[in-house]
Write a structure and sequence with these properties.
Blueprint: E1 17-21, H1 25-33, E2 40-44, E3 56-59, E4 62-65, E5 71-72, H2 76-84, E6 91-92, E7 100-103, E8 106-109, E9 114-115, E10 118-119, H3 122-128, H4 133-139, H5 156-164, H6 166-181, H7 190-193, H8 195-201, H9 207-213, E11 221-222, E12 225-226, E13 235-238, H10 245-253, E14 256-258, E15 263-268, E16 273-277, E17 284-288, E18 290-293, H11 297-304, H12 309-316, E19 320-331, E20 343-345, E21 354-359, H13 360-363, E22 374-381, H14 387-390, H15 394-409, E23 417-428, H16 434-446, E24 451-453, H17 463-484
Parallel strand pairs: 1-2, 1-18, 2-14, 7-20, 18-24
Antiparallel strand pairs: 3-4, 5-13, 6-13, 7-8, 9-10, 11-12, 15-16, 16-17, 19-22, 19-23, 20-21, 21-22
Helix pairs in contact: 1-10, 1-17, 2-17, 5-6, 8-9, 11-12, 12-16
Amino acid sequence: MDDSVARDGGPRPRPRSVAVVGGGVAGLAAAYLLKDAGLAVTVLEGSPRLGGKLAMLQVAGVTVDAGAEALLARRPEGTGLIQSLGLSGDLQVPGTTSAGIWTRGSIRPLPRRQFMGVPADFDDLADTGIVSPDGMARAQQDLTLPPSDQGGDESVARRVGGRLGTEVVDRLVEPLLGGVYAGRCEDLSFAATLPALAGAAHGHRSLTEAAASLLPPPVAQVAGSPDRRQLPPVFTTLTGGLGTLPPALAAGSGAHVRTGAMVRELARTATGWRLTVGSAHAPESVEADAVIIAVPAIPAGRLLAGVSGSAAAALGEIRYASMAVVTLAFPVAAFPAAVTGSGFLVPAVDGRAVKAVTFSTVKWPHLRRGDPGLHLVRCSVGRLGEDAVLQRDDADLTRLAADDLAEATGVRGEPVDGRVTRWGGGLPQYSVGHLDRVARIRAAIAALPGLAVCGAAYDGVGIPACIATARLAADQVLSYLGSRDTSI
């Protein structure tokens, strides 16, 4: 029977169509989440490859992630999607969870009881030596200061610094948040970047007590009888690297996936949406019943400028930070002592080029299968406002990273291999007012039936958060199409 003919002899209805603009993890997840709805889904990615901030490279013959290299295991969106793809057997847990802060002349252990740098135990913090005695005295005032006014959003520096002092912000909170956003605590929103702590703060007099409420109870130490309870891992990755997730999503979605297909314009039509794809010299029109925009805020704002000025304006308020990942390979023997921790963070106040270091082959033991005589080290360079350092060429960035690593660890000699991956405008900044900004974007989008947005610009920059926005966007599109066609 001809597929174009229905059983009653009439023409078979055309399947509803959805265009997903952007082939990063959010866009591909949205396409995958639509796979069972009987829709014709097309993913349009402007660059030559899929994956966005997930990418792979080879260093010293070992394939590693050049972008995001871990996802939160406690959020089900990421691990659930991986399980749905049949890849749960590829999930890997870290070989160690210990990490440090390189400050005040040495690599010092992170406090065991802290929530994104906010201490939950002052004795624990004092033992690390990260904060000076004067800084400790100021931090402990958090327990006696009157409750903070929580009437509106404020910066992390203002809220946490007001309770615990600037030294805790500069040497603990900033390095942890900087590792996520490459931003500045005086600009980042407390409510948007630390939502769990902001919520817990409403029920506690001090931030220290609020942080403690978010952590498991301390493990009891009984002489001769150590408590061997194992907490679930915080992070996980895939055996082949998280860069293997985008192609798996693309294949599993059943969508028509196009790379090198830059969407330049978006317009309403009588029946849905028209997307203009390609160059101005050879434009192509793509018609769709619904559209999901899964690109960063700046290009999303350009696309929306002609259909929602308010959404475009709010998207234009979201700034982005650039950074680079320098991946180095050293002989294990080049390190003067065994490398045991997963890595360390570096406070911006210390003026280093490197803001974070991951000992990849220690954190992820499965990488040692490539060459057990090598350590792979991942160095992150660049914060908001540090464009000058990122303008250096690859050789200079590699030298800067290797020099900082040598000073911190004592590693000797030159790396046997190194690669630089640049992420220009890669990390959205959740500055003060971000939650209100996102609410305005979504309210404006809600007035445009058949349109949805998703990605790192909204509810979190991690992979599970991006997948959660993809789920929301897919549900919005399905609800809209279902209201038009009872077969959906």
